[in-house]
Amino acid sequence: MKSVVLSQLTDSVYQRLMRSMGGILAFQDLAPKASHSDSINVMTDMLITGLNRSGAFNLEPIHLYDTGSYYAITGFLATVFIFALSLFTVLKMNQDTVLKARLKMFHFSKERLLIIRALITWFYTMLWSIVGVVWIMFSIPNTFELYNWPTLAIHLSYYVTFFNTVVITHRTFNTGLLNSISKVILAIVILVLSGLTIPTIFLQHIANGVFNIQPFAVVTNQLLEIILNNYILELHPSFYPSFIALLIINLAVLVWRYRQ
């Protein structure tokens, strides 16, 4: 927290000094015949005015979360992921062994079953999410107000829908060993690199902050803000574009498989 505050203060003072210097250079260009005394007075006035003016800080909120509350929410999100992945796997049953030969006889049959499994998983995972949120509201100290429930519902739906869409996409492409590897990578991204086990503040300087802008990390941070602080300061710019991009990719993959 101290490093963020010092960084913002340093950046703010630097920006004000640069604005003052720009004003001084502009004065010298517009009044080339000004005396040395006038130039000194203008420089002093601009410097004092620039440093006293309430300059704009970078919009980078600092939140202090109770450790227990933090891991109660992130643990809930982790259970949502584990529940969805487990249910998706259970619904597959013995499809690969018993029905494999028969499924090859019907066009686009595996993809249809995959979509049906995803819809069933989405429905029951949403029910699990609702139960988990109600439990969190009554079990940890929070400032959440009921007028913010649409925002909370949007983020939970986004989290579950995004995960199911990712699973459909990667299982359409991958089979066998590659499917297992991609599943492990997905689990690492969600459970480790999205703030569920390691707070995202410790990941913001790794790989140019790429882990902080991935959709699952964005949802984690937004849910922490809305539940514990009852507001979201600013919706992340990648919130909707990332979902739209994933949806387009998923539709393109399904159309490609259908035309094969």
Automatic annotation (TrEMBL):
InterPro entries: ABC2_TM. Its main location: membrane. It is a multi-pass membrane protein. One of its GO terms (cellular component) is membrane. The keyword Cytoplasm does not apply. One of its GO terms (molecular function) is ABC-type transporter activity. The chain crosses the membrane at residues 70-93, 114-140, 152-173, 185-207, 239-258. It is found in: Membrane. This is ABC-2 transporter family protein. The lineage of its organism: Bacteria, Bacillati, Bacillota, Bacilli, Bacillales.
